[in-house]
Amino acid sequence: MSISRRKFLIVGAVTAAAVALPPFISARASAANAARPIKEKVSFEVNGKQQSLDVDTRTTLLDALRENLQLTGTKKGCDHGQCGACTVIVDGRRLNSCLSLAVMHEGSKVTTIEGLGSPDQLHPMQAAFIKHDGYQCGYCTPGQICSAVAMLGEIRDGIPSHVSPTLTDQPQLIASEFQERMSGNICRCGAYSNIIDAISEVTEVSV
After folding, report:
1. Distance between CA atoms of residues 195 and 182, nearest Å
2. What is the pTM of this model?
3. Alpha carbon of 70 to those of 27, 122, 176: distances in Å?
4. Three-state SS for 52?
5. pLDDT of 53 over the 70 cut
């Protein structure tokens, strides 16, 4: 029995739709499941205080600090780990909190700008930033200060940088080391020389 071209096209279209429909439905179902939040409990110490949160597993440490704990000193800048405004100190090391999930830090000790000092009792680095006008607009300052504090710890622990002469000798507390190690913290106001002056003063006081 012969079949007309018209019927052939109709049958072909119906068959193609029947074949294509299940994956389409499956894709929509998968997307719906992916969008459904999965919550998990995470406990860590923040600024010396134990915290326990139920968070979406996709929540960054930055958002957990800002939205769940209302510690808004830590800033959300580029949200891609490029500007350093979100820098906090985790277990003694600086970290871009926008690139790290909160649930990855079970049991960690987190220090934000609020935990370094208070208006009545400033951390030496905070006081030096004020003295040398290293903050200007102030948006990047919390990350700059947290980064500077942890960066000095890295030097004292003997961790080399790109400008360190060798990988084995103790790095020096000098401007070139500070500049290299702080290069991941961007200041849109261009207060870099003031920031280096502030870090240098803290170094001289604490050595």
Report:
1. 10
2. 0.81
3. 37, 20, 36
4. strand
5. yes
